[in-house]
Amino acid sequence: MGADQFDHDEQLLWRILYRLEALALDRYERFAPSLAIGAKRDITRVLAKGGSDDACLKQSVLNEPFRELLDAASSRNETETLIIQGLLLERLGQIIYKVMSEQSAASAATRSLGDAGREACTAVIALAEDQLSKVVGKGEVLFDVFTAASDGVLDKLDGLGDAVNTIFGQRFGLTFSELVGEFTAELLPACVALGMNRRKVVCHLAGAFMGQ
Amino acid sequence: MNLPTRPTPSVSSTDKTLAINRLMGLAVFGEMVAARTYTLMSQLEEEYAPLLKKFSHMEGQHATWFRDASRHNGIEPDKEFADHELDYLIDQVNDHYKAGDFDALTVVQGFIVESMAIATYEPFLTIADRYSGAHEVFEKALNEERYHVDWVTRYLRLRFFDQEEEFLALAARVNVQGIDCIGGTMMKIADYLDAVGMSGADCAGTMMDGYTELLERVGIEQKKAAKNVVGMFMPLIHKYRHGMKIK
Asked: Is A211 helix (H, G, I), strand (E, B) or coil?
């Protein structure tokens, strides 16, 4: 799979996902080795080979807000890694991969990559949730840790909104509002299953997206 | 694009006065609009007319209670602000009424408007003791709003029993304007809620979750309901965050 199989928008999207996957894999290897599974290594390797370099990202309006998101997502320990990467960004990736795997407007290579990426994310999310309940516990204790660890990343997601709409909205139907709607819809039951109060989680998300 | 985060405003006593005047304006005049909406609904469905007239009377009473509580506390409900916020809602209500669309009115009033009322009245109770007599009337009003929502939920469950797709279509049709209007007002008062010691973000979150829960109770699958509601709130939240015109 090479970069020439993808058009410009696809290259940009895959570069973004590569950077997220590479960061996640690095954090898993450092702080949560059980999450550095083969499927995650495979998808990161394929994205590294198949996508373009950072040039397309640097020329994009996404560059600065994405850099800020990566900074905020640089987890510093196991708990942060499980929450930021395992609970949040894997889920965001899972949704993007799913959208791309179902895109009739995208190339066959992109759809196939979307399938593989989604499967890898799904596997890691399950491991992360299991590990999180073992390391931190469930319920209120976890909620407090979750809010502290997730605030910065959720806050930075907003910065991507306009650019995502402009670049990917028309082409792939991937609007920021729908993305966040789907992300929240997937995150809430997971948080509830971990014993968190759904309303509190929604209020936390609202506050973070409102910049408070 | 990297837009600056909104600066946190300092809260002076003038801000607090403006905030409570506007919040109470919305409460008083919003209740009056709710009373009118239930009256219009009673004209469309004879079967439910006695009950809906009763709801209308209850909403009218809330307006009177809130006005009296405001007077006792030197609060001047800001009619101009409320009118501006409620105009768009009144237009929607009028359109649905002209179309004879009882179900659309039920969703707008019974779910969207009541969700906002509950999401703000409930946390207001935690600070209501600062205003003489306010706790009692807001608590009574809150209980009655919940009663209205319970009835509306039962009505919609029966009306759309085994017709999830039809209800989704109705909700989608009504939500676009309804959430844009009422959710937009929620975002516009977020700073006022903060100023009087509540949390605008918590109220917005409570409204989102409350409305999601109502859709679920009528039979919409949880993820579908959450995606729908959050997806509609996000553009409003984004506008709020960047100080853009909300509506």
From this structure: coil
